[in-house]
């Protein structure tokens, strides 16, 4: 260009000036973007020490190591679920808030999680998902709802002693059966343990039922009691004076697989199964007596951890999606909607056939933005998942950090993961940028 | 027909992508408080009363909360003595993750306190450590048995001072729970299981495990293994000279399964235990009074006291019972190393290795010194005095925490290696062979590097 002589042959600034203006930006991009990317590619071809060239070995182990494959699987779940839910929720919120009076206040509240850093959001949700209903809101809600419909009762945790001398034995399904079959006129003892003596300290002392005490000829008598003395001691399998009866326990007499008589224990733990023909019966306490109270879900366990973290992510980003979509919504021409309404379209039809198609470009941008964002999710997983389930909740970005700095000390492998992540993100980036460029035209 | 996007949307979308990932979990890249001027003048070093006036030293350690506050008191004593300014940086649980990038970036703290001897070797190999000066080594020779000196050395050089020891062969129990159930301190593993059954029968889950903190599980394994397999096998397994598929490991895991395998033995069952981190399990025993025992080291005392229990009365500790023929004494400890070759760093290490520094620290709760010249009389309570005595008198007979001797990818990383494999074993204690296979595979991978 310098060969060109004479008066200025073009409009606008000279190329030199343009380069001068571009230089700061190019320099920053070069230092902060281009160089790190190129160096990462270079580094990913070497092993942990950085001295031995391993070619594509690190990339190979991404797809062979089972732990890394889990991260890829989790990322796929994230990408499929999170952006879709965020976009749909954002759309619903945006459309609904358009109609209400305190829309701004409502939007403000929904947008507020964006003001919290993801790290803090993670800490909050770690508490929300706490197993103990006294601490975790999620389980507090679940147990409250559950208990409204079916109140827990009975003696969760009570069970027979685990030894051969115990007269009763627990079955696989939790039912407690008496070892020796009983005949009418006999009495059985059913000692239970596993409850703190203090939990029944107001109950009357247990009474042993003996055949001499008048068990009717057509009845099986017996006692169900807590065979534990505070401070130890007491005779095992015998009713001691300090031991308390367990009231309200359902007792069944079973013969040939059929329940022949049912009764409940009295306050002192005694029961009489009456009206039995002669024969041999198995006395049992059904599992319902010992049903454990509903304790909520194990949110932070290996199975629910990824959905739980996605829930936290949605909480943070749904407000953001709403604001974007609401902005798009305000640009939708009113006349189109009104024309449809005049033509007799229902609100659902207006939404489905007019609003959504007109909003499609915005929805797509929100969706793609979320996909990019979700691919590199890190903080929430790092904070919310307890150490013991982090392998199950792991995602590529977190694995990249773990492998390179968090103990793995293998920056070759870490760089390979970083490049892998970049390759995953780039198509969506290109898509988004092309959209913006097309829109600007 | 393509609809035009409102410009604010485009900008917001880009901004969201740009800012989404920046609030990372670790405070890794904070600017270092480097040295201002180590020794500006030349000759008149010892002229002033405070030889390190104007020197700034940065110390990084994993301690937080009370442990941090106590350590800062020790640092304050050093500052008062020397005039240096010492800043403390907490590395969080994952010391390697904090130091790694700082070392890579040529911007390490002056002094780091490493929770694992494995890291001494690793950083020594990376040439990140500075050898101790003769003055510091003189303090070590005077105050420590050779075993401890060995632990702080790598490749024939002495790099570290063991500044804090942890006695890991203890089982803490709640006196009230034992009284209620009529349980006793156990001398053997079978006794322990029997007592656990007694507690469970009386309605108190015997153990609160901190399964979410993997290191508590490795500590338990080490005690069981040291006792059942003996010190020689312990050393071999530490160095991975025998595989984790060895029958001695099978025995140890089977013993552990006697506890792990019973739902009523663990507070909240295995899944509850796996979500409980340290020190929540201590709170469960002494604060919420939900369980009877917690298997962890001497530092439980601090957390127990915080839950409102009186150490020595409500909260008592028993020696880890004998599983086999050996009475297990497993120790952990933190090793201070210099990452910068500065006068301040060496002076601080010398102070920490000295009798003087050790005794200041010893008067604070939750600290146990491996320094043999720190008189046990300094400790604030009877229990610590006894523990200090056992460490000093045991000398060469004790073993160091095995997982801390292993490469950190195997023995010291959340969600990886031994931590993860033992957590998986807690989840499914019936699969001893499977657990061994996974342990061996992970160990092989980590030791190969």
TrEMBL record, chain A:
Compartments it resides in: Cell membrane
CDD domains hit by this protein: TM_PBP2
Domain ABC transmembrane type-1: 72-432
Gene3D superfamilies: MetI-like (1.10.3720.10)
InterPro entries: MetI-like, MetI-like_sf, UgpAE/MalFG_permease
Membrane topology: Multi-pass membrane protein
Membrane spanning stretches: 20-42, 76-96, 108-129, 312-333, 354-375, 413-433
Key words, A-Z: Cell membrane, Membrane, Transmembrane, Transmembrane helix, Transport
One Pfam short name: CarboxypepD_reg
GO biological process: transmembrane transport
Gene Ontology, cellular component aspect: plasma membrane
Major location (coarse): membrane
Superkingdom field: Bacteria
Iron as UniProt keyword: no
Similarity field: Belongs to the binding-protein-dependent transport system permease family.
Name by which UniProt lists this protein: ABC transporter permease
Organism whose genome encodes this protein: Sphaerimonospora thailandensis
UniProtKB/TrEMBL annotation, chain B:
Keyword Cell membrane (UniProt): no
The organism's place on the tree of life at top rank: Bacteria
Spans annotated as Disordered: 25-47
Matching Pfam families: SBP_bac_1
Keywords: Signal, Transport
KW Transport (keyword) present: yes
Endpoints of the signal sequence: 1-20
Similarity remark: Belongs to the bacterial solute-binding protein 1 family.
Designated name of the protein: Sugar ABC transporter substrate-binding protein
Species assigned in the record: Sphaerimonospora thailandensis
